[in-house]
Amino acid sequence: MDRVELWRSMLRIRRLEEAVVRLAEDASRPIRGHVHVSIGQEATAVGACAALEPHDHLFTTHRNHGHVLARGGDPMRILAEILGREAGYSHGRAGGFHVAAPDLGILHTSAIVGGAIPLAAGAAFAAQRLGTGRASLVFFGDGAMEEGVFSETLNIAQLWKLPVVLLMENNSVSPTERGGRGSPTSEHSAAALSDVPRAYGVQTQVIDGTDVEMVLETTRRALDGVRRGEGPVFIEARTSRWPGNYGSSPTLSLSGATDISWAWMPAAPAEPVRAWSERSDPVLAFARRLLDSTPSQTLMDIDAAVCAEIARAVDEALSSPQPLPDSALQYVLAPFG
Fold first, then answer.
1. Structure confidence at residue 27 as a pLDDT band (50, 70, 90)
2. For residues 286 and 288, what is the distance between their CA atoms, to the nearest angstrom?
3. Which of 132, 160, 260, 293 has its Cα between 20 and 30 A from that of 280?
C-alpha cells in the first residue's frame, strides 16, 4: 500500500466515524444507544492492518469500526450493524460494540475491557499447534492493562512463545509525551505501562501511534518475529484523545467534521480542536507530509470521493430493514457440521 493509499484508508475511517457521530446525534435517533468512535486513532488501525497477511486473525475492542474498515470491511455493513439492521455483519444482532467479520479474520469483537486478549492468544495457540503460519493481532486500550486477564495472557503467551502481537492503543497521552517512553497513569501502579510486558520478558516497543508509517513498520517487524517463533510482541501506540471524545458521548459540536484544508491552514479550526488538529490529528499530520509530493487539490479530490462513498453507505444502511421480532432466535448458535 503506497503512502497516498495509506492516507485514503485513514480518511475513510475518519469520515465513517464522523458519520456515526452524526447519526448518534440525530434527533430522530436512528442509533438507539451509545457509540464509541476511534477518531484520532486512525493511524494505528491502518498501519497495523496493512501489516497483516490475509489469513491472519484480528481481534478488537468496543472502538472497532476503524479496525474493521482498515481490515477490508464494507462501510455499509459496518454502519448497518451499528444501526441494528439486517444488512449488518451480524444481521443487526451484535450492534456497534461487537462488529465481527469472520471472512476477514475478525472472529470476535469484545466490548468487555480486555475481553479479546485471551481470545487472540487462543487463536494463536491453535495456529501454533496446527502449523498454519497464522498470527494473531489484538487491539486494546490502556484500561485493559488493569484487568487480570491481561497479565495471565501475557504470561502464558510468553511461556509458550505464541504468535500474537498485542497492540495497546494508549489514547490518554499528551501531545508532548506522545513519542516518549513513559506513560504515567493514575490508575496503574507501573511508572510506565510498557514496563509491565518488559517484566515478563516480552519484546516491547513504544511508538507514536499517530504516525501510520511507524505503526506499519513496527507491526510488520513484530509479525515477522512472532511467525519465526520468537514469542509475543507488545506495542504501545501512543495517541492523544480527540476533544470530541471527552464528554459522555462523542460530539462534532466543537468544530464540525474535519476539513482537510486544516492540514495547510492550521489556524482555521475552531479553538476547542485547534491545538489537537495541529499537533495530534493523524489524518492531518500525514496529509501535511504528503504535500511534499502530492498537490493539495489531489487530497481534496480524494476526500470528496471518500465523503461520497460514506454518504452512499449511510443511505444504504438506513434503507436496510430492522430484524423482525420473530427472527430473534436466528443466529444465536453457530450451526454444527
1. confident
2. 5
3. 293
Return all residues near 301 (Cβ < 8 A) that are at least 6 apart.
Answer: none
Task: Please check whether residue 75 is in contact with residue 154, taking contact to mean a CB–CB distance below 8 angstroms.
Answer: no
> Where along the chain do its domains lie?
3-324
Is pTM beyond 0.90? Reply is yes
Which grid cell sits at 69?
474498515
- Number of Cβ within 10 Å of residue 294's Cβ equals 15
Query: The C-alpha cell of 2 is what?
Result: 503506497
**Per-residue DSSP letter, 88:** S
The CA distance from 178 to 169, in Å, is 12
Contact present, 65 and 78 (Cβ < 8 Å) = yes
Closest CA to 64 of 134, 138, 122: 138
Residues 327 and 8: their CA atoms lie apart, in Å, by: 38
CATH class given for the domain over 3-324 = alpha beta
Residues 260, 198: Cα–Cα separation, whole Å:
39
DSSP 9-47: HHHHHHHHHHHHHHHHH-TT-SS-S-----TT-HHHHHH
CA distance linking residue 133 with residue 49, whole number of Å: 17
| Residue 182, pLDDT score | 52
Cα–Cα dist 142/186, whole Å: 12
Q: pLDDT per residue over 258-317, tens digit each?
A: 999 999 999 999 999 999 999 999 999 999 999 999 999 999 999 999 999 999 999 999
Distance between CA atoms of residues 117 and 61, nearest Å: 9
